[in-house]
Amino acid sequence: MSTAYEIPTSRQPQTFTVSLAGVTYTVTLRWNVTAAAWILDLADRNGNPITTGIPLVPGPNLVAQLGYLNLGFSLYTQTDNAPDSPPTFSNLGSTGHLFALLP
Fold it and tell me: How would you list the strands of the sheet with 49-55, edge to edge?
């Protein structure tokens, strides 16, 4: 059985650490004005990039392409009352969510 964990976010560009599957990661979320989308960067605890430039879009596992790294989690995004809509600049952290799914 999998466990869903909401990664706390807010309505502003941000960098924070989060522990997932026993490993500490640095997450950066920034707003891309041209794409009108939140962009996720994932780094190790020392700030070394693991992946950059992943748009927060609902549906697929955001880190699926990193399966070869055996991260031990999946990342998904969803918006309340509109699960197929990406988080907007003003709703991330309130009705727009980032979830980690751990096996």
Answer: 14-20, 23-32, 37-44, 49-55
The domain tally of the chain equals 1
Residue 64 dihedral angles phi and psi, to the nearest 5°:
-55, -40
| CA atoms of 25 and 60, how far apart (whole Å) | 21
Parent domain of 16: 3-102
**Cβ contacts of residue 86 below 8 Å, gap of 6+?**
37, 38, 55, 56, 57, 58, 77, 79, 96
Taking only the tens place, the pLDDT of each residue in 23-49 is 999 999 999 999 999 999 999 999 999
CA distance 50 to 54: 11
